[in-house]
Design goal:
The protein has 5 helices and 2 strands, in the order ααααββα. The protein is mainly alpha-helical and 106 residues long. About 7% of the residues have low confidence.
């Protein structure tokens, strides 16, 4: 199994190749490499996995080829919690800040 296959194995949802490629390049993970125990337990792979899970939190529900892919709010929360735990393990910012208008006296 390759790293790409391992990442796609997180879910049956059709994650766009561009999403995986962008995240893997950012994390320095070669998706064509063989998935070994060492690789799957590495910091870079785990952070890549967290990035994908964070992406899945906001992935739209879709229908493709007559098959519907959707996540319940509970599943989305689980992805969020799993990603956050990995980010915290490696002291990465989770980028879950809230943005918006706070008023005139900032």
């Amino acid at each position: 199994m390759t790293i790409l296959e391992a990442i796609k194995g997180i879910t049956n949802y059709p994650i766009p190749q561009g999403t995986i490629t962008t995240s893997s390049v950012r994390r320095g993970v070669d998706t064509t490499a063989t998935a070994t125990i060492e690789t799957l337990n590495s910091k870079n792979y785990k952070l890549l996995e967290a990035d994908i899970k964070r992406w899945l939190v906001s992935a739209p529900n879709i229908t493709e080829g007559g098959v519907t892919f959707s996540f319940s709010p509970t599943e989305r929360d689980e992805f969020r919690q799993e990603a956050t735990a990995i980010y915290l393990e490696y002291d990465e910012q989770t980028k879950t800040g809230k943005y918006g208008y706070k008023g005139e006296n900032l």
